[in-house]
Amino acid sequence: MTGSSRPRVVMLWHSLSGYWAAAVSALAERADVTILVRPPDPLAPYDYSTLELNGAELQVAAWPWSHALLDELVERTRPDITCSIGHTPALWRVLHGARRRHGTVTVMFVDNLWLGTSRQRAVQLLFKFVRPYAFDRAFVPGARTTEYAQRMSFPPEDVVRGSLTVDEALFAPVAAGSAGRWSDPRFLFCGRLVPDKAPDVTAEAYRIYRKTVADPWPLQVVGHGPYDGGLGGSPGVIMSDFVQPDALPEIFAAAGALLLPSRLDSWGVVALEACSAGLPVVISDGCGAAADLATPANGFTVAAGDPVNLAEAMTAVSEAATDQRREWGRKSSELADAYSPAHWADALLSTRR
What domains sit in the chain, N to C, each tagged with a CATH number? Predict the structure, then answer.
């Protein structure tokens, strides 16, 4: 970046949430930001009107976005950087034009995990042409997504880590904890109630766990969706609906550990929120976050789809000494420090070389 002029950034995003609002707000301290998003997801209906964006321009339009809409946005803002989630031929054409006409650095947000499926191999072949046509850099959260980006023809030097963040102002104060976290703890499952999030595996694991220990912790489930997997009505399970971000700190403060047992989850931002809140975590190896946020120092990684393995980890957490659980929580907080909104903004702006 040259001189004192602020860079112009356009974000083409799927939706907004509390942590994305924190990211946009941090970016808006350093750049002029315009963000185009889809309407809220019915399974995660964040109220956009309550989110503080620090002066960033917000535009909401139904997906898929037309070439005309995208082209008007780029021509009006003439961005130095675009960062996009979701990909269509219309978007690729607009990004190609932005690079050619305005020297825009085009950044592809990547949070996929490489699974080697036939569909992914087809996309891999397509991106040998799309990547040099439309994209300069890939913006990824961690180790497993780096592999995917490189398989999509991004050279290692054009893969930038740090693409996910956490609203540390919301969750970091929780890390100081309340007495209830350690004296009257509970497990927390927080996410959409859909098969990929494995509520059925959680329900079976919790039944096994309750038969294993003399004084089982309750399990609080916070989320909305069509498939509870048998959690509803199970002994010891407290069911709560989706809540807006400002209600989450109280929920995290009452928890003793987070469960993220997804069958497949490109990352799992709730794990980062739990770490920021100073919680031990139990994360499945189906989650991209497991490689970066679940270590022996702060919790457990379990096999996706395996309720017995999950129940064993739950037992290990709840039977651990209070000092051990506090230490796991402290290590979680340390891990989360590297994912602040300020770090996220700096990482995105670093793509403009």
Answer: 8-166+339-349 (3.40.50.2000), 169-338 (3.40.50.2000)
Q: Which residues contact 170 (CB under 8 A, 6 or more apart)?
A: 18, 22, 245, 246, 248, 249
Condensed to tens digits (0 to 9), the pLDDT of residues 139-191 reads 999 989 999 999 999 999 999 999 999 999 999 889 876 556 777 899 999 99
Burial 134-167 (b: 16+ CB within 10 A, else e): bbbbbbbbbebbbebbbbbbbeeebbbbbbbbbb
End-to-end CA distance of the chain: 8
Instruction: Determine the Cα–Cα distance for residues 75 and 64; give it in Å rounded to an integer.
Output: 19
Q: What is the DSSP letter of 287?
A: B
How is residue 301 written in tokens? 């990684």
Residues 314, 320: Cα–Cα separation, whole Å: 10
| Dihedral (CA of 188, 180, 332, 217) sign | negative
Q: In the predicted model, is pLDDT for residue 253 greater than 60?
A: yes
Closest to 38 (Cα-Cα) out of 69, 9, 8: 69
User: Facing residues of 108 across strands?
Assistant: 84, 138
Whole-model pTM above 0.85? yes
Starting at the earlier edge strand, list the strands of the sheet with 81-84.
57-60, 32-37, 8-13, 81-84, 105-109, 137-140, 159-161
* 313 in Cβ contact with 300 (< 8 Å): yes
Classify 214 as helix, strand or coil. coil
Instruction: From residue 178, give the alpha-carbon distance in Å to each of 102, 236, 251.
Output: 52, 22, 11
Q: What is the largest CA-CA distance in the chain?
A: 68
